[in-house]
Amino acid sequence: HDASQFALVGHSTGCQNSIHFLKYGQDEKELVDRVKVVALQAPVSDRETEDEDHNSEFIRHAQMLLAQQQGDEMMPRSAFWAPITASRYLSLLDVNGEDDFFTSNLTDEQLRERLGHVSQRGRRLDLIAVYSGKDEYVPSFVDKDILLKRLVKAMNNDNVEDDEDDAESGECKGGNARGLMLEDANHNLSESEGDGARFVAAVGELLRRW
Q: How far apart are the first and last CA of the chain?
């Protein structure tokens, strides 16, 4: 209770947790206001990762359970790789689900609605979104460079200019949020040498500002 400043570092689903907390943590508003640095490593979309045809049947099943006020009921084993409730299944895998923050086919307006609170008026917060160029959980049809720029732009309420990109460092900048592309990195930074160190250094740079 004595700490005055906090940093959040999220990996994969932890990125969604961090964004969700900043948006919906109203019961802990004082704690939310103390968060000064957020690092998102591998902010990928569960909805885009999973097979859409496979999902559709289970989404209908989950929606039925939710309509019957049984959102805490477990989904069938074949629905997901881990045990999951109907409400959690929809939050991750349904269009416009509560955790549908990073999907490439969301419009710019939809992304802004989901992510614009990061730079809301009156909040001083530094955020970095670190994307992996060879993330095995991102489909090949997704242009990762374009998506990262769109995510950063949405987090900054569109206050990002193209000429603020730094091609040499892989950063896109502007406003409170910035993005960093690690071109050869996989999902958890375990394959290409030096990616983990670059991520830690980028987070350290933000921490030093505070």
A: 19
β-strand pairing of 177-182 with 126-132: parallel
Q: Per residue, what are the HEC states of the chain?
A: CCCCCEEEEEECHHHHHHHHHHHHHHHHHHHHHHEEEEEEECCCCHHHHCCHHHHHHHHHHHHHHHHCCCCCCECCHHHCCCCCEHHHHHHHHCCCCCCCCCCCCCCHHHHHHHHHHHHCCCCCCEEEEEEECCCCCCCCCCCHHHHHHHHHHHHCCCCCCHHHCECCCCEECCCCEEEEEECCCCCCCCCCCCHHHHHHHHHHHHHHCC
Instruction: Give the tens place of pLDDT for each residue, 168-209.
Output: 444 555 468 999 999 999 999 999 999 999 999 999 999 999
pLDDT, residue 171, reads 58
pLDDT one-digit tens code per residue, 79-113: 998 999 999 999 999 999 999 999 999 999 999 99
Write down how long the chain is: 210
pLDDT in tens, 138-178: 999 999 999 999 999 999 987 654 445 554 444 555 468 99
